[in-house]
Each structure stands twice: as structure tokens, then as C-alpha cells.
Amino acid sequence: MENPLAHFPQPELVDQPSAPVLASSNVPPLASPLPHSLPSRPPESFMHKNRLQEFTQRSSIQLPVYQTVNEGSVHAPQFRSSVLVDGVTYTSETTFSNRKAAEQDLAKHALECISKKLKDEGCPLIREDTVFCKSILNEFVVKMNLELPTYNTSQSGGVLPLFVSTLVFNGATYRGETGRNKKEAEQLAARVVIQSLLADDRYGTVVSEIIKSKAKLYDALNKAKDSSFDATLAGANRLNHNNTEVENNAVTNHVPNTTHPSSGAKHLRHEFKISKSGEGR
């Protein structure tokens, strides 16, 4: 059967407009496609020389000076390196067939030795006195671009009140030892965080450098205190000496003058009279 609609003219097909695109400032532009290969980060074993150089730059000391010698042959090289850092020479314990590997391993060894030295120098400061603990932690936070720590201090009742402070730092909570006042309790809480950072290989060197800088200030303050104490003690001694002289002068003024027998002056003799009632006896 013939289609009755076949004789009717068919409408011409035209390109239909696509759906309108809504302009919106909230839609970010499409990012360019990522390249197939991104520059990879150097392996960890090739970063030690860079870190040692950064340490010397931060510490404002001379850059490391390397010396590498071949203890083997030309066909079977055995390289051993030594490096001079801040007046101390570090030598690699083993040899390597590659010069770069020897220097990288040596830089790692030097960093470990320096880190241990800094920790040993800094730990007595925060153990003996907590006056700089909050300052050390705040400086570390600024250097690492972290959020400042928050303190919460509570007081316990009793004849002698005690204070305990808890500290929130980098998402973790730390609790310090008891202190005699709020300020000391917060310093003790900051010390707990510092000790934790020193035990971390990632941050130990940075914290040790900060402690070392504070140690110099701590020594200067102690010298100032000692000088002030010596001046106070000297002033007290002078005052005591002056008071003694005044007392001696006062005693001398109240004692009658007497001439020493060796001076040749005649002594006055006192005559004792005997009553007549006793003469006939």
C-alpha cells in the first residue's frame, strides 16, 4: 500500500542550533592537558649534598669543601670522600665505585653527625631552663609555615596551687609537667613538643639550629645576670666596709686618750689614803 504522505513535500532539514551555553564566571577555564611525562624528583640518595649546603647557608658558615680520592685502580675505582664543614672534617666510612655516590653518602654522614651535635648542645638548655621553650616553638612554627599552637592551662586547688598546661600543635595534643604558675606550665608544655620534634629526623636539625641560636642569647643573659650580681655583691661589700669604719670611728671617739707606756710619758699615780682608825692596828 502506498504511503499517502509520500506525495506531500517534506520540510528541509537545517542545522539546529545547539543548546545555548550559559556564561558563568564561576566556571573555571579548562586546564591545559598535562604532559605525558612530568619531571621526576631526584631520588633521596641524591639530596644529601643539597641539604648540607642549605644547612651551611642557613647557619651563615662557609660552604662545604669536598675532597675525593680514588683508593682503587682505574679499572676498579674505590672512591672515599671527606668534607670540611665549619672547621670539622668528616670522612666517609666506606668506599664507592662512583664519585658522586661517595660524596652523597658522606654528606648524609656529616648531616647525621651535625644533627647529633646540635641536639647534644641544645638539650641541656631546654632541660635546665624552660624560659625559651615557647619562643623556640613559635620560631619553628613560623619557619615551617604552620599554625601557632594553642594552650589550655588549668589550676589545681590546694595550699600551694599547681598549674598544668595542655598544648594543641599540628593536630596533636601534648601535656606538660606541673608548674608553679601559668607561665611556667606553658613553657613546660612547649618543651614536650620540642623534645618530640628533636626525635624526628625530619625536623630535628631545624629545631636544633633554633635552640643553638637561643643558647647564645641564654649565655649572654647569664653573663649579664652574673655581672649584675657581682656588682650588687661589690656594692654590699663596700657598704659593709663603710659601716664598719663608721662604727670604729664612733668607738674611738668615746674612748679617752691614753698614752702607751713606751712613749716615755709619766703615768699619773693614784694615792690611796688609809683611815686613822686603822693606824694603831
From TrEMBL:
Residues 1-42 are annotated as: Disordered. Transmembrane segments: none annotated. The keyword 4Fe-4S does not apply. InterPro entries: dsRBD_dom. Keywords: Repeat, RNA-binding. Residues 47-116, 132-199 form the DRBM domain. GO terms for molecular function: RNA binding. The keyword ATP-binding does not apply. This is Double-stranded RNA-binding protein 4 isoform X2. The gene is LOC107936205.
